[in-house]
Amino acid sequence: MGRCFQYAKAPTASLLAFLMLITPLAVQAQNQDIQNAIIEAEAAATSATNKILWLGAGLVGSWIGLGAAFLYKPNPPAIALLGKSPDYVAVYTDAYQEKAGSIQQKYALYGCGTSIVCCCLYYFVVFAAMSSVETEPDPYYY
User: Fold this and answer.
1) What ranges in the chain are assigned the alpha helix state H?
2) Is the separation of the CB atoms in 57 and 68 below 8 Å?
3) Which of 43, 56, 77, 88 could join 84 in a cystine, given CB atoms 3.0 to 4.6 angstroms apart?
């Protein structure tokens, strides 16, 4: 009976050795798949995000547009995720939302900053014009 288990140890040890050799290759392939998902998601987010829209939202909406850029998280297009593994979909979605969100925030901030600068310049010009006008007393006021 003992001899039977002795022969069974050899295939088990061989299988474990084989798995130890294959596991790093599988992990490397999975890491490469994750890196590809991140690269593809960032490229898609860069091309799909409407920069002029978010610049206008910051310019016209000022703080509201800036807040919307920070709160809104766009979803990736579903066609890019068809037939992909759940890990790929999760990584792709996270990378897409992060990249698109950072682009939105950057352009909304540019628009908000431009709006603030324009308002300050407007008030500066108006107050400068008001102070340079000579005021004469109205003769009909008395």
Assistant:
1) 2-48, 51-61, 63-71, 86-132
2) yes
3) 88
